[in-house]
Amino acid sequence: MLPSFSPDEYDEDGGAFLTVDIQNGWAAAAFNDWDDGGRPYMYQPVNRDGGEKEDPVYTGGQTPAAARNALRGTDLAAECARRFAVTG
What we know:
By secondary structure, the protein is an alpha+beta fold. Helices cover about 15% and strands about 35% of the residues.
């Protein structure tokens, strides 16, 4: 499951967006945007209890997210999505 949230429904302004991949009780959230030079960047949460070897979530169905960048359970991911919806 990959919900994607953006303040611009048609992405006409090329603005920030949030993706949340959910799989097997894990969630991988990523905040994506572009800097003033047009270069993309992404922020992901850091789970201090996770590790490099576990790959509990496949982001976009392709790349596995390391456990250190995934959230166990969906409550915190839902709060991230709610906060992004409120603040953009």
